[in-house]
Design goal:
alpha/beta, Dihydrodipicolinate Reductase, domain 2, 30% helix, globular, binds NADP nicotinamide-adenine-dinucleotide phosphate, binds ligand 3JN
């Protein structure tokens, strides 16, 4: 008989949590019961799952009694406090925050790239940062065929990556600008930082706060997580992360250098064409390339504008687009849960 699982979603009322619920509804995961958890602010409100109402509960250690799979997306401090409580009670945690990503005994997984790492888990599995996920998904088929030496990425990130309040801020500011009214900024670029800037009709080269080396944490996440997922500490990675007034869908300009010589852009496109989770959209003659607007609600990572660098024969450029709330967060998490079941790891 098929085993059924008791599933909890922590942060169910958030931008990522809402999408986790939708992905679970569409998933093949055999679910016995579902529990939606939040802070006391949303506890008592009603969400729905597969057409049935579910009352949101406050997340506490006891919430995880009899839970098999707990998907967390309520921020790092909540995962720090409650993920060990969930594990203690027998659950496998799939954590969307950065809290455990670089911990040695925690697998950091994008199934298309390093699914085998799931076998090494000790209760917690980390979901990488959204910008990292779509980039490594696109680079992996190329790396498998031609090796990978260096990556330089610039991101064009949607506001939904910063949560529901940031989406509200973009819409409110846009309306204010169009109505010729004063604009208020309280969330972006980073709710926790000292200054806030208008995102409407702007481009802000800061995502998360700055580290001591003048890179932002988002940039550090991309650099460190890419090396960990690809299992290559010597891979050279540099990142510049930028927020744009787009509600959903992260885009990335990715420059990469491969090991092998004599590889053409057509070869790179061929390795992407049938790669898992990748859709190649690349035809300059018909102005075909991935766009943020088209990726919304899709699980795949879209790649286009593949071309060889004009000066560096082992260097290539590509444009990588994905729904940051799906492959970047909710779908990758639910996909991990599905793979745990398929691989008999749970
Ligand atoms: P959001 O829209 O602001 O939602 C935050 C969620 O966390 C809400 O459900 C909120 O519940 C809940 N929460 C807040 N404080 C809590 C507490 N003390 N106990 C339990 N739940 C609490 O944020 P979001 O965009 O969904 O992001 C949530 C987290 O997911 C982020 O902090 C980040 O760590 C992670 N994330 C990961 C990625 C990725 O790249 N994989 C992308 C975006 C976000 P209330 O409704 O009660 O406030
Ligand atoms: O801003 C984005 O586009 C992605 C943001 C992700 C994020 C937001 C708040 C906290 C993270 C993350 O997943 O890295 C975190 C965090 O957990 O550190």
């Amino acid at each position: 008989m098929t085993k059924l699982y008791n599933v909890a979603v922590v942060g169910a009322t958030g931008a990522v949590g809402e999408q986790i619920i939708l992905q679970l509804e569409q998933s093949d995961l055999p679910i016995a019961t579902i529990k939606f958890l939040s802070s006391p602010r949303s506890a008592g409100s009603t969400l729905s799952f597969k057409g049935k109402p579910v009352i949101v509960e406050e997340a506490t250690p006891e919430s995880f009694t009899a839970i098999d799979i707990a998907i967390f997306s309520a921020g790092g401090s909540i995962s720090a406090e409650l993920a060990p409580e969930a594990v203690k009670r027998g659950a496998i945690v799939i954590d969307n925050t950065s809290h455990y990503r670089m911990a040695e005994d925690v697998p950091l997984v994008v199934p298309e790239v390093n699914e085998d790492a799931l076998r090494q888990h000790h209760g917690i599995i980390a979901n990488p940062n959204c910008s990292t996920i779509q980039m490594v998904a696109a680079l992996e088929p190329i790396r498998q065929q031609y090796g990978l030496k260096r990556v330089i990425v610039s991101t064009y990130q949607a506001v939904s990556g910063a949560g529901n309040l940031a989406i509200d801020e973009l819409y409110t500011q846009t309306q204010a600008v169009l109505n010729n009214e004063p604009v208020e900024a309280t969330i972006l670029p980073s709710a926790g930082d000292k200054k806030h800037y208008q995102i409407a009709f702007n481009a802000i080269p800061q995502i998360d706060v700055f580290g001591e080396d003048d890179y932002t944490y988002e940039e550090h996440k991309m650099i460190n997580e890419t090396k960990k997922i690809m299992g290559d500490a010597s891979l050279k990675v540099a990142a510049t992360c930028v927020r744009l007034p787009i509600s959903r869908g992260h885009s990335e300009s990715v420059y990469f250098e491969i090991d092998e010589a004599g590889v053409s852009a057509a070869d790179i496109k061929a390795s992407l064409k049938d790669a898992p989770g990748i859709v190649l959209q690349d035809d300059p003659a018909t102005q075909t390339y991935p766009q943020a607007l088209d990726c919304v609600d899709k699980r795949e990572t879209f790649v286009g504008r593949v071309r060889r660098d004009l000066d560096e024969p082992k260097g290539f450029h590509m444009w990588v687009v994905s729904d940051n709330l799906l492959k970047g967060a909710a779908w990758n998490s639910v996909q991990i849960a599905e793979r745990l079941v398929a691989l008999n790891i749970i």
